[in-house]
């Protein structure tokens, strides 16, 4: 069963074509990384998968049904998005923000019940943000905020989670903590994970499959071994690398050659 299917989509913000005829499918329960240079269209693609933008051409199917046929709240129950940047200028507490993950399940004036509270609590625990619960979102660090936004996505309880560079502000310990958490959700709950990562070595380590975007096109798609090649890296990043296997994990491991 496909969680998502992208069928010949094209998209441009103005006249410039940003995504040039992309097609791929993602099966339920897959762990997929999207990699590619700055400006290659990764965030744009993720926003299309969540129906924030609509393709100029082509279709996107969610669980086999055209995504345009879903109401926004229905999509929010099935897909959560952790965006690349979150600017929250209001003085909400961390717990308020994570509780917003429950909104798709609530009527307009309906209050949180005990079940919502326990789901929020669990999300705070899983992301190690429980000690921050009463702090203001405007008064915590960038990495702490990134983990709070992930907690909100977890509270949304969706079967597909899209994450746009969720580890970019995290220290090495929290990077692994977040990726392990996603891996566990993927294994234990069969949650479909689609994650944009700049760290290719981490992408290789955690993903079933990698989609490699360059200039709005998929230049390679498949297992980490198939996708992470010197040739593909050279084509997209214009640089030479040493490519080895990580001796602990046996996954591709690249080191840029510094001249
Ligand atoms: N709102 C917008 N209006 C116009 N052009 C945009 C907009 N957002 C992005 N773009 C352009 O679309 C292209 C793809 O942007 P996108 O944000 O998808 O790249 P990305 O692969 O996520 O890059 P990064 O790794 O830097 O996050 C870029 O050339 C960017 O300048
Ligand atoms: Mg981006």
Number of individual domains: 1
State the helical fraction. Answer: 25-40%
User: What does the largest sheet look like?
Assistant: 6 strands, mixed
Low-confidence stretches: none
Considering the protein shown, what is the CATH homologous superfamily? P-loop containing nucleotide triphosphate hydrolases
Observed structural traits:
Rossmann fold, 33% helix, alpha/beta, four-stranded antiparallel β-sheet, 9 helices, six-stranded mixed β-sheet, 259 residues, 12 strands, binds adenosine-5'-triphosphate, 26% strand, single chain, binds magnesium ion
Provide a compact summary of the structure.
The chain has 259 residues and is α/β, with parallel strands linked by helices. The protein has helices spanning 42-49, 72-78, 94-99, 114-126, 142-155, 172-189, 200-206, 224-227, 230-237, and strands at 2-11, 19-27, 31-35, 57-62, 65-66, 79-82, 160-164, 192-196, 209-214, 217-222, 241-245, 252-256.
């Amino acid at each position: 069963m496909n969680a998502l299917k992208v069928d010949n989509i094209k998209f441009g913000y103005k006249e410039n074509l940003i995504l040039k005829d992309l097609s791929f499918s993602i099966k339920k329960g897959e762990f997929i990384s999207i990699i590619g240079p700055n400006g290659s269209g990764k965030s744009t693609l993720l926003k299309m998968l969540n129906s924030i933008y609509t393709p100029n051409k082509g279709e996107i199917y969610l669980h086999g049904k055209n995504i345009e046929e879903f109401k926004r709240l229905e999509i929010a129950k099935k897909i959560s998005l952790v965006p690349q940047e979150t600017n929250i200028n209001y003085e909400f507490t961390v717990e308020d923000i994570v509780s917003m993950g429950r909104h798709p399940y609530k009527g307009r004036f309906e209050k949180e019940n005990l079940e919502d509270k326990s789901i929020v609590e669990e999300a705070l625990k899983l992301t190690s943000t429980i000690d921050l619960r009463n702090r203001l979102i405007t008064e915590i660090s960038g990495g702490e905020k990134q983990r709070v936004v992930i907690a909100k996505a977890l509270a949304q309880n969706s079967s597909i989670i899209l994450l746009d560079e969720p580890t970019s502000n995290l220290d090495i310990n929290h990077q692994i903590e977040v990726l392990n958490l996603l891996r566990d959700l993927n294994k234990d709950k069969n949650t479909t994970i689609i994650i944009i990562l700049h760290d290719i070595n981490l992408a290789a380590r955690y993903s079933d499959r990698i989609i490699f975007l360059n200039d709005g096109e998929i230049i390679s798609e498949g297992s980490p071994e198939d996708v992470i090649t010197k040739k593909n890296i050279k084509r997209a990043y214009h640089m030479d690398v040493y490519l080895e296997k990580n001796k602990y994990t046996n996954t591709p491991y690249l080191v840029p050659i510094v001249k």
